[in-house]
């Protein structure tokens, strides 16, 4: 009669000749199979967690309680209903700024010489009086009263509060161009007091005082169809259905320092127009840091594509600021200026920007008519 051999944890096996080694092999193999099984289960769980996290990333904003929609007399409801929300980078240092503070903290100058007989005091209402000087205003620069390298506090702007508002600062101009045939272009212009350029081989290049960036949404019969994201010398266009949203309001990601607008978070190399790669020499960084709702701190205007005229929708929206043809910051410092640095022909400090009037407000396509191909993307990415 065969004897039974008891092995803890694996039951009993008959002690037949030649059988013990086979059973022993089975016994010793079970733990490794179990380990592989547990490892496989753990990997599946991690993949499920990752997939669930991605789902939450995209779905939770859609499930969030809807933000109150502003109602402003004269502004089409859809312009506010679908207005972009701006994600500022988590390490942003230069936040949206009050547009009037840019005037208060600067002096108008031509060729680094202050214009002594300008209007006093200058305000956003009479800023276009400077168009009397310097080739109809084109050569006028709003020049900082304080040396930029002393880091004047007003260049830092205002971080949005928990409601998404830049409290005490009007930092946006919303401009509406009714093109007829049930087609309306709404421009959401974002103002920052300072632009921090990209760092290339440890060299900071392209800084300038003043920064105007924007999104544009094209509406057809009150429905959003296309969206433009301004980026340095050009930008990107997407179908409205492709962009990330909170409810129906699209997200735009403002790059750290440069404030170029992108459709996704991450790293964006913008060396090649119309293409943003995940790495390269000229890289912008975007992330979900501070959420800004520009509609809460905006001026509102209508724009006529026929004659380029602005008109205020609300009484407190100063038209003079929109008509000013000069630059919203310092003139590029000459090489003889100790503040200026040059790296392979690129300058550390550049000219301040032109205002909203120069942002192709009457464009035919969703893209500016600048000679570059207008690519309309149906999905997010490069």
From TrEMBL:
Q: Which residues form the signal peptide?
A: none
Q: Where is this region: Disordered?
A: 1-28
Alphabetically ordered keywords of this record: Membrane, Transmembrane, Transmembrane helix
Q: Which Pfam families match?
A: Vps62 (PF06101)
Q: Does the keyword Zinc apply?
A: no
Q: Which residues cross the membrane?
A: 41-60
Question: Is Membrane set as a keyword in this record?
Answer: yes
Give the protein's recorded name. Answer: Vacuolar protein sorting-associated protein 62
């Amino acid at each position: 009669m065969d004897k039974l051999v008891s092995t803890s944890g694996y039951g009993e096996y008959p002690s037949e000749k030649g059988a013990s080694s086979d059973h022993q092999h089975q016994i010793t193999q079970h733990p490794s199979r179990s380990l592989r099984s547990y490892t496989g289960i753990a990997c599946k769980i991690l993949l499920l967690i990752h997939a669930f996290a991605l789902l939450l990333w995209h779905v939770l904003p859609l499930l969030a309680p809807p933000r109150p929609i502003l109602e402003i007399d004269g502004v089409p409801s859809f312009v506010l209903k679908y207005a972009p929300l701006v994600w500022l980078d988590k390490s942003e240092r230069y936040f949206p700024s009050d547009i009037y503070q840019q005037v208060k903290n600067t002096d108008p100058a031509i060729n680094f010489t202050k214009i002594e007989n300008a209007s006093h005091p200058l305000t956003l209402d009479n800023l276009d009086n400077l168009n009397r000087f310097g080739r109809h205003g084109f050569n006028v620069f709003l020049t900082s009263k304080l040396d930029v390298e002393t880091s004047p506090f007003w260049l830092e702007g205002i971080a949005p509060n928990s409601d998404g508002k830049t409290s005490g600062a009007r930092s946006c101009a919303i401009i509406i161009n009714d093109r007829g045939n049930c087609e309306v272009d709404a421009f959401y212009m974002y103002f920052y007091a300072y632009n921090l350029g990209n760092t290339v081989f440890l060299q900071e290049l392209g800084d300038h005082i003043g920064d105007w960036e924007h999104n544009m949404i094209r509406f057809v019969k009150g429905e959003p169809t296309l969206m433009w994201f301004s980026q340095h010398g050009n930008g990107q266009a997407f179908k409205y259905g492709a962009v990330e949203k909170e409810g129906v309001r699209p997200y735009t990601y403002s790059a750290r320092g440069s404030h170029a607008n992108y459709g996704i978070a991450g790293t964006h190399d913008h060396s090649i127009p119309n293409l943003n790669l995940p790495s390269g020499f000229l890289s912008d960084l975007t992330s979900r840091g501070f959420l800004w709702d520009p509609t809460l701190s905006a001026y509102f205007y209508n724009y006529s594509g026929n004659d380029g005229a602005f008109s205020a929708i609300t009484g407190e929206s100063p038209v003079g600021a929109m008509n000013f043809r000069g630059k919203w910051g310092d003139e590029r410092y000459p090489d003889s200026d100790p503040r200026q640095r040059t790296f392979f022909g690129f300058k550390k400090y550049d000219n301040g920007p032109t205002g909203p009037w120069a942002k192709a407000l009457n464009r035919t396509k969703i893209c500016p008519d600048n000679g570059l191909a207008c690519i309309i993307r149906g999905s997010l990415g490069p």
